[in-house]
Design brief:
9 helices, 9-stranded mixed beta sheet, Pseudouridine synthase
């Protein structure tokens, strides 16, 4: 009943706004009719004027901001897109764009200048085997950030790219790993990789080995795979299975705060140890605890990112 009343009230409120677009009625020969006409054309409080509606229509017709399209395609972050546009390194359908806020057809072809591609190629992504006692992000007083481990002495495979201090500039974790968890942690300078791993639409798998104790609820394993909620939000389906008597394998496609520990608590289990062994197609492998290596040119976390010079 209340819902129906609300819908009726909403409809009544919209009627004056619809009539606001009609021109003001001319003065009628009968005064009473003129007054009625005036009331019929008065817009409702808060209703947009005809001019504002026309402007909104024009903005929609102009397309989508170039930086937003570039970020959505995984070419770079929106902030980086603005930097590239300012430098004149972005082309839309073959035409150079240098003005921030430019709107384009969302299906337009976007290409980057060679300088932009070289700049992106120079950015590093680091794979770290985080030990217990380090935090993945900005630490509170008394805690140590994992980035402290990125030193020349901790580099596992130097290859053709030994450690350089420039590798630390703008380096940020692409995902979290709790202070009491170990395993694969990604730190990157590349906004494309960060978006691929932790963006809202990311579906890259993360695999964990989890040692537990306690009595699993009757339907606990099924719930761990699908059916649990955290913070009043349903979790995405997961893949959870027993490896042995006290160890589970979790494969997730999202990363809520302390997600696995909280999931286990909901079904009667307590996590004793947690280790991340894979992110997408990249495995921890033989990387020793506390050491790091660079992501190889032939390694990707998920579906190969589209080449930045081949976007439609």
């Amino acid at each position: 009943m209340n819902d129906a009343k609300a819908r009726i009230q909403g409809t009544l409120k919209l009627k004056p706004a619809t009539s606001a677009a009609t021109p003001k009625a001319r003065k009628a020969p009968v005064a009473k009719k003129a007054r009625n006409a005036g009331r019929a054309t008065r817009p409702a409080a808060g209703a947009p004027s005809a001019a504002r509606r026309e402007t909104a229509s024009e903005n929609n017709a102009e397309g989508v901001r170039l930086s937003k399209v570039m970020a959505a395609r995984g070419m770079c972050s929106r902030r980086e897109a603005d930097e590239l546009i300012e430098r004149g390194w972005v082309f839309v359908d073959g035409r150079r764009v240098t003005e921030l806020g430019t709107r384009i057809d969302p299906d337009a072809r976007i290409t980057l200048a060679p300088e932009a591609r070289q700049q992106q190629a120079a950015r590093v992504t680091i794979l770290l085997h985080k030990p217990v006692g380090y935090v993945s992000g900005q630490p509170e007083p008394g805690y140590r950030p994992a980035v402290e481990l990125i030193t020349p002495g901790n580099q596992f495979e130097r290859g053709n790219r030994p450690f350089q201090r420039a590798m630390l500039q703008g380096l940020a974790p692409a995902g979290r790993l709790d202070i009491d968890s170990t395993g694969l942690l990604v730190l990157t300078q590349d906004g494309r990789i960060a978006r691929q791993l932790i963006g809202e639409s990311s579906t890259v798998e993360k695999e964990y080995l989890v040692r537990v104790e306690g009595q699993l609820a009757t339907d606990g394993l099924a719930l761990l795979n699908h059916g649990l909620e955290l913070d009043d939000r349903a979790l995405r389906p997961a893949k959870v299975e027993w490896i042995n008597d006290d160890q589970l394998r979790f494969i997730l496609r999202e990363g809520r705060k302390r997600q696995i520990r909280r999931m286990c608590e909901l079904v009667g289990l307590k996590v004793l140890a947690l280790k991340r062994v894979r992110i997408g197609q990249v495995r921890l492998g033989e990387l020793p605890p506390g050491q790091w290596r660079l992501l190889g040119d032939d390694e990707t976390f998920g579906d190969q990112m589209q080449r930045t010079d081949e976007h439609l």
